[in-house]
Amino acid sequence: MNANGIEPTCPDHPHPLEPPDAHDEWNFAARRETPTQRLDRNYAEILQEVRVAQTGVQLLLAFLLTVAFTPRFATLTDFERRVYVSSLVLGAAATALLIAPAAFHRLVFQRRLKRQLVQASSRFALFGLTLLMLSISSALLLILSVTLGASVAAWFTGGATGWFALWWYAVPVWSRIRHSGNR
Q1: Which residue, 24, 36, 87, 152, has fewest beta-carbon neighbours within 10 Å?
Q2: Percent of residues, the chain, with pLDDT higher than 70
Q3: What is the model's pTM?
Q4: 92 to each of 2, 47, 122, 124, 152, how far by Cα in Å?
Q5: If DSSP codes are grouped into helix, strand and coil, which group holds residue 52?
Q6: How many angstroms separate the most distant Cα atoms in the chain?
Q7: Would you say 113 and 126 are in contact if contact means Cβ atoms under 8 Å apart?
Q8: How many Å apart are CA 146 and CA 45, to the nearest integer?
Q9: Among 75, 68, 110, 74, which residue's Cα sits nearest to residue 91?
């Protein structure tokens, strides 16, 4: 028996031949949560995070899909059209990745692949958010280019992209590094 009371052959452990890892042991000690319960909670948390991002990407994609059918679209420069296409493709790719956890779940449902589902969904969400940031940035570049000109738009867009990267990536990574010794 392990110190946390979870046997490697425990039915609640997703891989009976694999001993519980440090996260399993900490969660059991702190929350009385089995590895399977932790995976269920982790997947529910990922879905909540993805729901927030899905709303944003769906609104952005809907906006981008309508732009090509406006009278002003014909007046866009080649640069602005390329930016538009980039934003549209990035938004569609972000949408695919942010919806992917649901499709993955449906295809592995009742196959005892919850750990793989959680790992894949986490990656889908992270890469989907990255594509969403790039799609928002390129949509911003398009709009600012039309309203302010390409050079001013590039500066504002660079700043906005940096702002997203700061709060979505740099601050969490900094926090992770700063608190890595607290485990």
Answers
A1: 152
A2: 89
A3: 0.83
A4: 47, 19, 19, 14, 27
A5: helix
A6: 72
A7: no
A8: 39
A9: 68
